[in-house]
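Apologies for my clumsy wording, but are you able to produce some protein sequence, whichever is easiest, and the C-alpha cells describing how it folds?
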Amino acid sequence: MPLSIHFEVDNSGWRKDEGAVKEIIRVLAEGCNRWEKVYLRVPMQALEELSMLRGKVPLLNRLEFHGAWSSAPPGGKEYYRLDCFSDAPKLREAIVHTRYFLESQSAFQIELPWSQLEVFAEDSHSGSCYNALAEIQPREMQRLVYKVNQTPPLPEAPLVLPKLEAFRFQVGTPSAAALLDHVDLLTLPSLSDLEIRGSFNPADPVYEKVLNLIGRSGCDLRRLALDGHCGEYTSVFAGILSLCPKLERLDITNVSKDALCMLILDTKSSTPALPNLQNLIVRSRKMGDVENVIDCEALTRVIKSRTTALSLPDTGEAHHGGAGCHHLDEIYFVYEDDARLHSHLSSLEDAPDNGIIFPEGANRRVICDLASKAKGLLNAIDDGHLRQLEEIVLTRGDSQTLTVHGSQLSYRISY
C-alpha cells in the first residue's frame, strides 16, 4: 500500500539531538519503496542522511521539499546538494522551497528527473532549477511556478513547452529587465494562466512583451496577472484584451484612466471587452518617482457596466447577463500602505453614481451575510489586540505601545 510521508524538523531540533533525527530518517527510509507523496522540511545538514533513498522510491509521485534555516555548507563546500530523488520513475510533481534557509547567496542544488515532470514550483533566494528545466524542455510540463529574489543568467535559447497551462514567474531586482528579454524566447500554445511579477520600471515594456507572447503562442488565457506600468501602454493593453476574449481573472498594476475605460463592458458591441471577466484585481504601486492615482469615476463605470447594468435573472443560476456576458463577482484593491488605500476608497465613495456599487435596492440577505462575516472578523481582531494588551508589563517600559506614535500591536488575522 502506498504511503504519504510528512516529516519536519527545524534547525534547533537538529542541534539538540542530531542522532535522534538521523534514526527517525533511517526508520522512515526502510519503507521508502512504498512512498507515494512526500513532504520534507529539514535543515540542509540532514540532506546527507537522505542519500540512502537514491534509486529506492519507485512509487514516488509528488515531492515537496522545504529547506529549514541552516548554517553554511561545511568543509569548504560551495553548496548543499539534494540528488536522492533524481531516479524516481513516477515523479510528476515537485515543489522546492529554500528561500529562507540562507539569505546571503544560493547554496543549494537539486537534481530531479526534469524531463518527466508535469508540475514544478520553486521559491528560493536565487535558484537554478529553471535553467535546468529550460535546457531539457520537458514536453509534459503543465504548470510552472518560479519565484526568486535573484536569478542566474536566464536561458538564451528559444523555449517551447507545448502542454504548459500555467506559467507564473516572479523575480526581484536586478533580474526583472532580464526576464522580459527571456519572455521573447517563449512559445506556450496551451497557456491559460500567465503571471509575471518583478520590480519593473515604468519604461519597461512588460505589456508589449506579453502581447507578443500571446500572439506568438496562439493561446487562450483565462487568467492574466502583470506588474509593470499599464498606464503608458494603453494601445498595447487594448491589443492584449482583443487576444484574450475568454479571460476570467485580470490582475493589473498602475492602470490609467484610458486603460480602465477599455474595461467598460458594452453588451451591444459585437466584440465586447472581456465578456467572461469574473475577478478583477487593481494594484497601485509607486514606481520610481511615479505615484499612481486610479481614476475613480472610470472605475465606477467599469463596475456598473459589469454588475447592475447587466440583467441578472432571479433563478440564482449562472451569473450571466445580457449577450452572454458574465457578471463581475469580485474586485480587489491592493495598495502598498493603508493610508493610500483608505484615500482611494473614500474617493470611490464620492465618485458620481457611486450608488450603483451598493444600490438602495440591493439584496438584503447578501448585505446581512457580508455584515455577519465582517462582525466575526472584527471580533477576532479586537480579541487579538486585547489579549496583547493584557500581556503588557508597564514596569518593563512597555507603555510606549499606549502612546499615539508608539509601536503597533502585531496581531494579524488570515481569512
